[in-house]
Amino acid sequence: MTKILNETCIRMYCESEGRCHGIVFVFFDETQKENILHNVNLLAHRHRVHPDVTVSVREKYGEVFIDFYDEYHHEDQYFFEDLVSVLGAKLCDCEDL
Q1: Which domain of life is it from (predicted)?
Q2: By three-state DSSP, how is residue 56 classified?
Q3: Which of 10, 13, 54, 78 would be 65's cystine partner, CB 3.0–4.6 Å?
Q4: Architecture of domain 11-91
Q5: 7 phi, psi to nearest 5 deg
Q6: Which of 73, 65, 90 is nearest to 9 (CA)?
Q7: Residue 15: left if φ>0, alpha if ψ -120 to 50, beta else—which one?
């Protein structure tokens, strides 16, 4: 994926549907995507959690959706907090993409 937009930061937004709660990290190039996936794996191992991870590619950006379906525990919260901190992600409105 080539960088189409002049984006230098990873954006994120929260998503909740039914009993599934997660965070979507938006990336604009391959380096950002690899950074997200690397840190997800690293922190999942450290926190001993097993999130579901889905990667999708849109026309101008891609998304990594990370969620815990039907089993939210405090350790999951710490995982998300650490991941957002490590990535330096910024919360955005979905309509801003």
Answers
A1: Bacteria
A2: strand
A3: 54
A4: 2-Layer Sandwich (3.30)
A5: -115, 130
A6: 90
A7: beta
Residue type, 11: R
Phi-psi region of 30 (alpha: psi -120 to 50; beta: other; left: phi over 0): alpha
In this prediction the pTM is 0.77
Report the length, in residues, of the chain. Answer: 97
What residue segments make up the domains of the chain, in order of their start? 11-91
Q: Within 13 Å of residue 76, how many CA atoms lie on the same side as its CB? A: 15
Residue-wise pLDDT tens digits, 23-67: 888 888 899 999 999 999 999 999 998 899 999 998 888 999 998
With H, G, I as helix, E, B as strand and everything else as coil, classify residue 41.
Answer: helix
